[in-house]
Design a protein that fits this description.
Strand order of the largest sheet: 3-4-6-5-7-8-9-10-11
Distance between the termini: 30 Å
Number of helices: 14
Structural class: alpha/beta
Number of strands: 11
CATH architecture of the domain at 84-208 and 297-369 and 384-388: 3-Layer(aba) Sandwich
Shape: elongated
Largest sheet: 9 strands, mixed
Order of helices and strands: HEEHEEEHEHEHHEHHHHHEHEHHE
CATH class of the domain at 84-208 and 297-369 and 384-388: Alpha Beta
Helix content: 40-55%
CATH topology of the domain at 84-208 and 297-369 and 384-388: Rossmann fold
Length: 389
């Protein structure tokens, strides 16, 4: 729901403007004539107090929101970069790639969601890199990757380059637009399913224009052309202003309100703050272009042609890509298995990282292990996975 961010930023800016006006009007005061004919400067103290409170809210509000909107962190994970390399993308962009774990171990390639970067995989890297070679990367225009084109096909072409760098089977894992990128790659180049993709994990994602699989979808689709798209194009045209607004939004906590919409009841303060931080440091114009690209995307027809094993993970509380989207993906991919997590929203892979990573691990062990002439390996996990299709 990153397209809602400008609305929260405008509200936050209006609060700051109100604070400045109240402080200015208090300072100016009002000249009043006494009964004895003398003139004095009168100031209303309520303007000072209200202006001061609103100013503090505009500059320090995020601390209050973090206390109110998220749980304490029992053991926050501190991100540590792995082996960093720069890979040239399909259109000449420079892609920031990080590699973790034993070099010769089975390979898992992680693609993050929109407005974020590779650091959102910190829990997955910590849990999986002990036994797997885990590769993360920044999508073009986000994190430390440059961009020449913002589109799902361009992202898929870059993912293909990363895939081709490794001469062994790879498990592709993608969250949100990362899952859409994987579907685009398999749609645009089905041969990768025989040349290197051992399986896919689609995490809290969709198969079509996200406005069709979001909560209040009919309302957002009705507002797309008269409001949402013009607002996004304005965000692109006014890049310096929108970036300043974005930073003020982060300080005031309105960015945290936006980020909180994507979490369920398990989110911690460091998780919420890190997500809001990434939504702030990444270019607003790039984020707007990505939203526009997603509005013009669809991979429905490609789902039945996906032949590799697929694990579809979703959240029962996901309002960004509704559970119905995960259900549809799992129904149309022939070899798909589905797991929906209770209490998890769109960022479920962060707030319920232990559960998500456990299933990814078991699935990876299954699809990346050498073929055996025995009965198929079953999932050894306490979670219930419902095979569909």
């Amino acid at each position: 729901m990153t397209f809602l961010r400008p609305i929260f930023s405008i509200i936050s800016l209006l609060i700051l403007a109100a604070a400045i006006y109240l402080l200015w009007s208090w300072h100016q005061g009002e000249l009043m004539r006494r009964p004895d004919g003398t003139v004095e400067l009168h100031r209303d103290d309520w303007r000072l107090w209200c202006g001061g409170i609103l100013t503090l809210w505009s500059l320090l509000g995020r601390f209050l929101y973090l206390l109110l909107l998220a749980k304490p962190d029992p053991a926050p994970v501190v991100w540590k970069n792995g082996v960093g390399i720069v890979v040239e993308g399909a259109n000449g962009e420079r892609l920031n790639v990080q590699e973790f774990g034993p070099p010769d171990a089975p390979l898992i390639l992680l693609t993050h969601g929109w407005s974020l970067d590779h650091t959102v995989w910190q829990y997955a890297v910590q849990d999986l890199s002990r036994d797997f070679r885990v590769v993360t990367w920044d999508l073009p225009g986000l994190g430390k990757s440059t961009a020449t084109e913002i589109s799902l096909s361009a992202f898929a072409a870059d993912l293909k380059i990363l895939l081709d760098r490794h001469q062994r089977p790879v498990l592709l894992v993608g969250h949100s637009i990362g899952g859409m990128t994987i579907q685009t790659l398999l749609r645009n180049d089905p041969t990768v399913q025989q040349k290197g993709v051992a399986g896919i994990v689609l995490v809290n994602t969709t198969y079509t224009n996200p406005l069709k699989t979001i909560v209040l979808g009919p309302l957002f689709r009705a507002l797309r052309w008269p409001l949402i798209e013009p607002m996004l194009w304005l965000q692109i045209a006014l890049k310096p202003i929108t970036w300043l607004m974005s930073w003020q939004s982060y300080l005031s906590g309105s960015a945290h309100l936006t980020a909180r919409l994507g979490f369920g009841r398990y989110v911690t303060r460091s998780q919420l703050d890190h997500t809001a931080w990434l939504m702030t440091v990444n270019s607003p114009s790039v984020q707007a272009r990505g939203d526009l690209a997603m509005f013009r995307w669809d991979a429905t027809a490609a789902l039945p042609r996906i032949s590799v094993p697929a694990l579809v993970l979703g959240g029962e509380m996901d309002i960004v890509t509704l559970p119905e989207a995960s259900n549809t993906i799992a129904q149309y991919i022939p070899r798909a298995q589905l797991q929906l997590f209770s209490g998890a929203n769109h960022m479920g892979f962060i707030e319920r990282a232990v559960d998500y990573n456990a299933l990814i691990r078991v699935f990876a062990e299954k699809v990346l292990s050498p073929p055996k002439a025995v009965e198929p390996t079953s999932f050894e996990t306490t979670a219930t996975i419902t095979p569909l299709g």
